[in-house]
Amino acid sequence: MGKPPAACIQSRHLSVQACPVGGSTMTFMVLLCLETLPIPIIWAEPDPVVAQGKPVSIWCQGSQNADQYCLYREGVPEPLRREFPLGPSNKAKFPFPHMTYHLAGRYSCLYHRQTSWSVPSKPLDLVVTGMFNKPSLSALPSPIVTSGGSVALQCGSWQEFDWFVLCSKEGEGHPRHLDSQHQADGWFQALFTVDHVSPSHRQTYRCYGYFSSSPFVWSTSSHVLELLISGVSRKPSLSVLPGPVVAPGQSLTLQCHSDVGYDRFALTKEGAGDPPQRLGWQSQAELSGADFPLGPVRPSHGGRYTCYGGHTLSSEWSAPSEPLDILVAVQLPQGPPPTLSAQPGLPVAAGENVTLRCQSASFFDAFLLSKEGEAGPPLHRRSQHQGGEFQADFPLRSVTLDRGGTYRCYGSLSSTPFLLSHPSDPLELVVTGVPAAVTSSLQTPDSTSSPRPDHTLENLIRVGLSALVLVVLVVLVFQAWRSQTGSQGETKRCFLHGSSPSISTWNQHSPI
Q: I need a surface site. Which of 71, 93, 246, 275 has the fewest CB within 10 A?
């Protein structure tokens, strides 16, 4: 590279000339110096990877009482910047208000103290980003990783990047570079393996693409991908409003909640390349939870979802919730929607059986039946081909009044299990009368009738009171009979002993 300019080598008391020599790599060899100075340290704030137009500063730290600092960029023989500390200091700042691709490159710095120059610092790569379209970053097979496990991070783009680079959001470790692999479909990608995933620190990544001709000029950053480390703490529950079957354009909200005091929640979709959505907690009636609005609904929203709970101070997450399927009703190429009918007919008396039949002249692998206002998953039946029609029967046994309502059915293809046909016309199931008495041996598992009350104790009390009253009546009758029998015996004794009036006297007072 030749000698630095005089401003970078002069000294007020230079008695022995230092002779720095070297080439464009900024490697110096000190042939003769009065003293050996510590190697300077160079770094960039806030980060050596800087978006276009953002400010950045390069710092050079030397030894105390350094009187001059010089900043060099690889390939340029003259110093890019010089700083003269106003007072005693062991470092100097080189600010750049706006980062451009002209400033991107490899930097080194050195400093002067008394009669000597230091050797150059280790190189610093200053990178500008935002110059090309961003690549995508996804975790394979899933961003959910068990502690100690491994995961592959795929960085890819349709742009013909020569290299891809993976960075940790927190700047832990050096960026990892891999050359691009060209796929048969025109896709360019690189696979980065992350081993021994640990909950001790948050696993957050982003990636970039760049060309060999400009290694310090990178693309726009991919979205930030956070790995969720699944633990064993109690799983939350996941529900959906208004229901699991939705139409395009409709609003949709997934609710993750738990009675554990989680303060953050994450929602993931099975097989999706997008990173998990994360939200803070919302406390309601001793429950913690978060709402994830997904509307307006698109066909791509169909799929299987799970959610997790976690704590801000830990990178570990709970066990996953039970999966929830979101089904989107769209216009499938099969043709018109299926039809829904009731067999043998409507209305239905309470306690009777009825079958709802979903059928179509077009092929469907399966049919689904849903009831308006119910948040649970729809009933699912395999399609049967009968009489030139594809159909499925949904038997409802021992119908109760609460089984009444509005029903619709849908057709489904195994190739797109989360996309349904348009719904059938609504069928109003009318249940009439009072529910018939059904013994427990005839009740079906899907019966919703309440159990009959047990009056055994009350009946025993009534029988006991009746028996007691009967005994009292018998005693009273017996006492009355004995009293009458005693009176008749006393009268008879009077006649026998002459105490009764004489017959003549009786006759005298008797009426004629």
A: 93
